[in-house]
Design goal:
The protein has 352 residues and is α/β, with parallel strands linked by helices. The protein has 15 helices and nine strands. Bound molecules: (3S,4R)-3-hydroxy-2-oxopiperidin-4-yl beta-D-xylopyranoside (XIL). The site of (3S,4R)-3-hydroxy-2-oxopiperidin-4-yl beta-D-xylopyranoside has 6 residues, from loops.
């Protein structure tokens, strides 16, 4: 649980700005303790923490040795999602032989810098080794899936705030149904429920999320399909705690209904999170609208961008992130910080 939520509201307001910012985000500690708020250069993570939220990024283990990269990471972000290191093709490349080395590197970095972790991802049709996708026997696949979930969650037990238990199980287009995958085709519709039940048993303390893309527009059939699944799970007591909206947006940013979508899902009794945010060309307005949609939703507990600098992005041709390839803050950074309630440092200096 976030420390802000444990404290009473009044105590939190007194203590959090100085103590919490200093502890959780080392970068925030550099301002003199008695500096006026306008001069205090806040960071994304520290600013999000003031409303009990987090601000995270995807991290690639291979980049941690780059000091520009890790400098921004540790100054700005207080939640980390491994970009690829917890996926099946890395963690269980051959049956029963597990490799957690690259993910352990990231988890250790997070522990050393006071950052929390999102686990990504346990059951997904993509980045899945061929030995899994070629299984045709249901009993075999069921035990392989459950063993993968249990072994990976056990390895990281106590270190993961939330797991993307199932990723991208719904089809694009107008069907509102599950997509074709080895899990769907061999195990049937019940595979998602089975994965969540197995996950709850493996680590009862971790939050369990369903994560997907193109579910941000409320009227889309895919959004409606996921909504019906979450409603069904909640009504039958299938364990699910959160829904992740990947939010890989085009130049226009989020659909106008995004906040409606977030609040409708939250009303089912789950947390909602923006889990893989990037926006083609990173227009400040598009970032503002995205961050505001979360800030305006009480159960939107955090935002994760899918990489640090444009050069780190899986869509690097779109320049979709908050930091330029040289590590400098882009206009979208100031927009995001402002939407979180913060004051960009440069603006504070010129006005103060
Ligand atoms: C992407 C990574 O960023 C790339 O490095 C990798 O080559 C492919 O996967 N949805 C997800 C993420 O859930 O795991 C994907 O990450 C982006 C789309």
């Amino acid at each position: 649980m976030n420390p802000l939520k444990r404290l009473g509201r009044r105590r939190a307001s007194v203590l959090s700005v100085l103590a919490l910012a200093a502890v959780v985000t080392p970068g925030a500690a550099s301002a003199a303790p008695d500096a006026p708020d306008a001069l205090r250069a806040s960071t994304l993570g520290a600013q999000a923490a003031q409303s009990g939220r987090y601000f995270g990024t995807a991290v690639a283990a291979g980049r941690l040795g780059d000091s520009t990269y890790s400098g921004i990471l540790d100054r700005e972000f207080n939640m980390i999602t491994p970009e690829n290191e917890m996926k099946w093709d890395t963690t269980e490349r051959s049956r029963g032989s597990f490799n957690f080395g690259p993910a352990d590197q990231i988890v250790s970095h997070a522990a050393a810098h006071g950052q929390r972790m999102r686990g990504h991802t346990l059951v997904w049709h993509s980045q899945l080794p061929g030995w899994v996708s070629s299984i045709t026997d249901a009993n075999t696949l069921r035990s392989v899936m459950n063993n993968h979930i249990t072994t990976e969650m056990n390895h990281f037990k106590g270190r993961i705030y939330a797991w993307d238990v199932v990723n991208e199980a719904f089809a694009d287009g107008g069907s509102g149904q599950h997509r074709s995958s080895v899990f769907q085709n061999v195990l049937g519709n019940g595979f998602i429920e089975e994965a969540f039940r197995t996950a709850r048993n493996a680590d009862p303390a971790a939050k369990l999320c369903y994560n997907d893309y193109n579910i941000e527009n409320w009227s889309d059939a895919k959004t409606q399909g996921v909504y019906r699944m979450v409603r069904d799970f909640k009504s039958r007591g299938v364990p699910i705690d959160c829904v992740g909206f990947q939010s890989h947006f085009g130049t226009g940013g989020p659909p106008a209904s995004f906040q409606t979508t977030l609040s409708n899902f939250a009303a089912l009794g789950v947390d909602v999170q923006i889990t893989e945010l990037d926006i083609a060309q990173a227009s400040p307005t598009a970032y503002t609208n995205t961050v505001r949609a979360c800030m305006n939703t009480a159960r939107c507990t955090g935002i994760t961008v899918w990489g640090i600098r444009d050069s780190d992005s899986w869509r690097s041709g779109d320049n979709p992130l908050l930091f330029a390839s040289n590590g400098s803050k882009k206009p979208a950074y100031n927009a995001a910080l402002t939407a979180l309630g913060g004051t960009p440092a440069a603006a504070a200096r010129t006005s103060g």
